[in-house]
Specification:
Chain A: It is found in: Nucleus. Chain A: Keywords: Nucleus, Transcription, Transcription regulation. Chain A: One of its GO terms (biological process) is regulation of transcription by RNA polymerase II. The complex is a heterodimer of chains A (about 650) and B (about 220). By secondary structure, chain A is an alpha+beta fold. Chain A is about 40% helix and about 20% strand. Chain A is built from 15 helices and 20 strands. Chain A has a 5-stranded antiparallel beta sheet, with helices on one face. A 5-stranded antiparallel beta sheet of chain A has the order 16-17-18-19-20, with helices on one face. In chain A, helix 13 crosses helix 14. Chain A is rod-shaped, with a radius of gyration of 59 Å. Chain B has one domain: Hypothetical Protein Pfu-838710-001. Helix content of chain B is about 20%, strand content about 40%. In chain B, strands 1-5-4-3-2-6-7-9 form an 8-stranded antiparallel β-barrel. In chain B, strand 2 and strand 3 form a beta hairpin. The longest helix of chain B has 12 residues. Chain B starts with 5 loop residues before the first helix and ends with a helix. The relative contact order of chain B is 0.24. The chains are: A alpha+beta (about 650), B alpha+beta (about 220).
């Protein structure tokens, strides 16, 4: 203990240094009194934390909070030390008052009803969370994958020059066809004639798609099928679809009922037997379209044609049923039969073939292209009339009535003419009329040609007017004798109509003939008769012979209504010879010539005729063997005959 | 069904609502300088404009008859197409009703085609000339809508046609449909069409009463 060292122990400065003087002495704050420390502690109570747990947490973070509390202390020291406590208590009191008010109101149930809150059923099971996350992730993955797919496609298109012009082709398609984009991104086109005035109900929509390789195609079609396309008729299987060749990057999908080739076949048939042969060739006829397949323009044109033919046939069939014909029209399947004239039938059939086989049967010979064209033209006219109404003049006049209808009021049209305005000829009626006319024209041509061939003597020359309407044509017939044109020319005009002929002769007679060819034949023969006689009369005058009598209608023979045998009686210049001519025309032209001489050179008196002057009475006609007389024609022979008889007397 | 008299058939037509007697009208105007654009627009929108647009040149004469009991005179408009062989058109227009709920102006309207003696006939009846003008322009149609773009030309009385001059430097554009009663969708159809002409011409229903005495 001897070398023990004194250690001074000083307590740490407990009190805060208030001030340090210049000499280094530190002035301490006096330690707080009991009341001061109580106030300090009271100020540190956080009244907002009330529950026990909160207090425990508070203790943990007490060290951190102490610094802040000190600052607050310093700040509040200037005020009355219990001020903060009082404020807090006052706040608590206010809250208690409010709470008691609320409870009293709630208990009263007059102003406020308290309902228990629905328990938030947010019990998230882990398995559900896993599923939702999985779904979200897979959706995101799909977005990424489709984006990548599109990029890859675009990239491969850039590399492949054949495929990249899809949009160019789409532009070209857009220039010629009506297209629109529908909500699900598909492009739908319309090839119907509705904008051109058609009122046909069948839809003509087609779908435009990008041509891809076969695998992709199948997937896209299956996708389209599963998504349930907007229009059912655009949904077709790829087997039915027209597969493009590689050259085109655009593909049009035409509904199944518009695929293939269609046309309207028009046949006029004379006898029942012909019907069978025509029906055999119904299917599979048409141009070979395999070469054109793949070019969408062709595909669409064909489809549009199919639609048009269907509309035309539907219209005709409807009219055929509605029309009240004496012999009813027959509609069987895709065939309409109408009777034109007795034993002559018009058959209109719709031929629609979807097979693309190249082995076509031989083309049908009796298919009438003119009538088919007329049918198309007629339907187009209907379309045109549907969409092109005349504009009214003056401009305030109502839109719609035709020009004829507009003047009906001011011109005081009667009921009949108004009713006449409402009548329109249906397409079927018009086509039947045209077919009848064509048939009548052919028949007239045939009759005239055979007559011109058979009858050599007066020549029959027929001039057909080149300009004619579909139901009316006109022929002028000249009958002349070769070498004697100056003596006479018989001409007549025949108007060929639908079921009748109208003949206008030179003398102004008008005759109406029916469709029977025999009537025309008889008429022409009678005209030949009268031609011969009239020419003979002028020839006789020319040769100084006297025409004693002539008659165009002797009243004998069969062809009564139009004229019949004609005759002529001629006398020589000094009246000692006579020629009698009779021309009959049933059924062939038959010429008979008789001559008589008075007085006879040799006269022998008999008890009955005692004197020679009785011979001047004439009579005793003798028939000349006319076919033996020299000369090319009837007039030529007659000229010879007259000349020889005249010279004999001289 | 047989209809005996004209009066009966008229009432029959009215009752069955196939007599077009209501005119739905929208009007607007466009300056001469911009009318070409409007014509192009109409060519694109209307039916059958593959040919050049239909022109018209009409003279409209409005005749009025003072009636003893009412202060509103009875007005009849007679319109004649100049240089064209078409009957005169006489037109009666009722009071326009500008209903806020309807998109167009609606007025009753009767049209009748007449012979050229109608003006003399009306004068004999006591009608007096109210005003006359020449309308010249173009006509389009879209469905049952009629669109006229016309220039109104003043007629100087006592002078020849040479002295006539346009009333203003703009064209009047009218969109009208004459339909039987009870076809309310006409107005909507017209409103949609008028929308399509919007930046060029503002087609509106014009309240004549607010314009005062201007015909």
């Amino acid at each position: 203990m001897s070398n023990s060292v004194n250690i001074s122990v000083e307590t740490t400065c407990e009190n805060q240094i208030r001030e340090i003087a210049y000499d280094g002495t530190e002035l301490y704050q006096p330690p707080p009194t009991l009341s001061e420390s109580l106030a300090k502690c009271a100020a540190r109570i956080d009244f907002s934390k009330t529950s026990l747990e909160d207090l425990k947490k508070e203790e943990k973070s007490a060290a951190a909070a102490e610094e802040d509390a000190k600052d607050a202390n310093i700040f509040q020291e200037s005020l009355w030390p219990w001020d903060a406590v009082r404020n807090k208590l006052k706040d608590a009191y206010t809250e208690i008052c409010v709470l008691s008010d609320v409870i009293s109101i709630a208990k009263d149930k007059r102003y406020l009803v308290l309902d228990p809150l629905l328990e938030d059923s947010d019990d998230t099971k882990p398995i559900v969370q896993v599923y939702t996350r999985k779904k979200a992730i897979s959706q995101a993955a799909q977005v990424l994958l489709s984006g990548a797919e599109r990029l890859r496609n675009a990239h491969s298109e850039l590399r492949n020059p054949n495929v990249k012009d899809f949009h160019i082709e789409l532009l070209r398609l857009r220039q010629n066809w009506r297209l629109k984009k529908v909500s699900n991104g598909a492009i739908i086109g319309d090839l119907s004639y509705r904008t051109a005035g058609s009122k046909f109900g069948m839809s003509g929509t087609f779908e435009v798609a990008k041509a891809e390789d076969v695998l992709d195609e199948e997937t896209t079609t299956s996708n389209a099928n599963s998504s349930g396309g907007n229009t059912p008729n655009t949904q077709i299987s790829t087997n039915n679809g027209i597969q493009p060749n590689g050259s085109s990057s655009l593909r049009v999908i035409v509904p199944a009922e518009l695929q293939g080739v269609a046309y309207i076949k028009v046949i006029t048939q004379k006898d029942q037997e012909d019907l069978c042969t025509a029906q055999v060739n119904l299917m599979g006829h048409g141009p070979n379209i395999t070469a054109q397949v793949g070019v969408w323009q062709k595909t669409l044109e064909f489809a549009q044609n199919v639609l048009f033919c269907k509309e035309l046939f539907a219209q005709l069939a409807r009219e055929a049923i509605q029309l009240q014909a004496p012999i009813p029209h027959v509609v069987i399947g895709n065939q309409i039969r109408a009777t034109l004239l007795p034993n002559i039938q018009l058959i209109i059939s719709l031929c629609h073939s979807t097979s693309f086989d190249s082995n076509q049967p031989a083309p049908i010979n009796d298919h009438d292209h003119v009538l088919e064209h007329s049918l198309h033209q007629l339907l187009r006219e209907v379309h045109y009339k549907n969409s092109h109404h005349p504009f009214p003049h003056p401009a305030s006049a109502p839109l719609g009535p035709s020009k004829k209808r507009m003047i009906a009021g001011p011109t005081a049209a009667d009921r009949d003419s108004l009713l006449e305005m409402t009548k329109t000829q249906t397409i079927l009626e018009q086509i039947i009329a045209q077919a009848q006319h064509i048939f009548m024209r052919k028949r007239t041509q045939y009759v005239l040609d055979t007559l011109a061939r058979d009858v050599k003597d007066p020549q029959i020359v027929s001039h057909w007017n080149a300009m004619n309407s579909p139901t009316m044509s006109c022929v002028k017939i000249n009958i002349v004798t070769h070498g004697y044109d100056a003596f006479g020319r018989t001409s007549l005009v025949i108007h060929v109509k639908e079921r009748s002929l109208k003949c206008i002769c030179r003398d102004g007679r008008v005759m109406r003939l029916s469709y029977e060819p025999q009537e025309l034949r008889d008429l022409i023969l009678c005209q030949i008769n009268s031609h011969q006689i009239s020419c003979l009369v002028s020839l006789a005058r020319c040769m100084a012979w006297t025409v004693l009598s002539n008659s165009n209608h002797l009243g004998i023979g069969k062809v009564e209504p139009l004229g019949n045998a004609s005759s002529c009686l001629l006398a020589s210049p000094n009246s000692d010879r006579m020629i009698a001519v009779q021309i009959r025309c049933d059924p062939q032209i038959d010429v008979k010539v008789y001559i008589a001489r008075s007085p006879r050179q040799d006269f022998f008196p008999t008890p009955l005729v005692p004197e020679k002057f009785w011979e001047n009475l004439g009579g005793n006609f003798k028939e000349v063997r006319f076919d033996k007389i020299e000369g090319k024609s009837f007039l030529n022979k007659m000229e010879f005959l007259m000349a020889s008889l005249t010279s004999n007397t001289a | 069904m047989a209809i005996s008299s004209a009066r009966e058939s008229l009432s029959h037509a009215l009752n069955n609502r196939f007599l077009p007697n209501l005119e739905y009208l929208l009007q607007g105007s466009i300056l001469d300088s911009a009318v070409e654009h409007l014509m192009h627009r109409l060519k694109g929108l209307c039916d059958n404009v593959d040919t050049s647009p239909e022109t018209f040149h009409d003279l409209e004469v409005c005749m009025s008859l003072r009636q003893p009991n009412t202060n509103q005179p009875l007005m009849l408009r007679v319109r004649r197409a100049l240089g064209r062989d078409a009957p005169f058109q006489m037109r009666y227009l009722g009071q326009p009703e500008v209903d806020q709920r309807r998109p167009t102006l609606v007025r009753s309207c009767m049209d009748c085609a007449c012979t050229n003696g109608i003006l003399d006939f009306l004068t004999e009846m006591g009608f007096r000339l109210e005003f006359e003008y020449i309308a010249k322009g173009y006509m389009f149609r879209k469905g049952r809508m009629k669109i006229t773009v016309s220039k109104l030309i003043k007629i100087v009385p006592g002078k020849q046609d040479m002295a006539n001059e346009p009333i203003s430097q703009s064209y009047i554009v009218e969109l009208s449909v004459v339909a039987p009663t009870g076809q309310e969708n006409v107005g909507e159809e017209m409103r949609v069409f008028a929308e399509q002409l919007k930046p060029l011409v503002q087609l509106e229903k014009i309240d004549y009463k607010r314009l005062g005495n201007i015909p």
